[in-house]
Amino acid sequence: MKAFVFPGQGAQFVGMGKDLYETSPLAKELFERANTLLGFRITDLMFSGTDEDLRQTKVTQPAIFLHSVVLAKVMGDAFCPQMTAGHSLGEFSALVAAGALSFDDGLMLVSKRAMAMQRACELQPSTMAAVLGLDDTTVEQICATINGVVVPANYNCPGQLVISGAIEAIDEACAKLKEAGAKRALRLQVGGAFHSPLMEPARQELEAAISATPISAPVCPVYQNVDAKPSTCPDQIKRNLVAQLTAPVCWTQTVQNMVADGATEFVELGPGAVLQGLIKKIHREAVAESKATL
After folding, report:
1. Which of 43, 98, 75, 62 is nearest to 291 (CA)?
2. What domains can you pick out in the chain, each with its CATH number?
3. Catalytic annotation present for 126
4. pTM value surpassing 0.90
5. Cα distance between residue 290 and residue 269, in whole Å
6. Which of 29, 33, 157, 233 has the most CB atoms lying inside 10 A of its own CB?
């Protein structure tokens, strides 16, 4: 079975999607539609902006979504998913690609999500840190001993977990994790504590937007971040999308479940090749490739 997966924030690069725009009339039409819907020319920033331009959350999230979804659309019959999943933001790409969300609605939700997350970040100084070389249980236990908000946020692959929370709590956790034998426990260059309780204001904002957005049954199961399980029920998809903002991304468990359910080939659509690498670490026999253009 073929699974298509979609990357999240951090995969962006200057020039992303430009070749699609220049070679496919459908891609050009979709990119121009996005410029109109967003009210600014995101394509200018994607194709010829600076790294700093692309790091703005309000740009990063819709840019990655657009690259992924436009690529899926222009693939035509070659896009034939039997299951899909996306990492964090990528879950919205997966839902649009699988027909659960329209292109317009998906883009506007991603834009609203990005702005809501940005506002939540500005309310309290917060950050994330990558922890390498420790098992998940040890990281969870150490986080639980810290006085302050610090929680597991991204279960990326065995031995790689990202934690999220208040800056002081993250720094204290990193020191304890190194003492416990972590190869690395290093703060990431991100604007805030994504997938933590500190995103509660954003969750409330997004809940209203998601409730008002029509979601259909997808053409194939979409494995969602919150529970790593396949979803086809629109109401369940909505609940999981809302919960995702303050809950961890269960990527390790998602890939394991997809393999258990018959996935034999993974194709990553969009910028970068992060998910391809994680998939191979989660399941060494996995056949995985990344695709950023036709």
Report:
1. 75
2. 2-122+197-291 (3.40.366.10), 125-187 (3.30.70.250)
3. no
4. yes
5. 6
6. 157
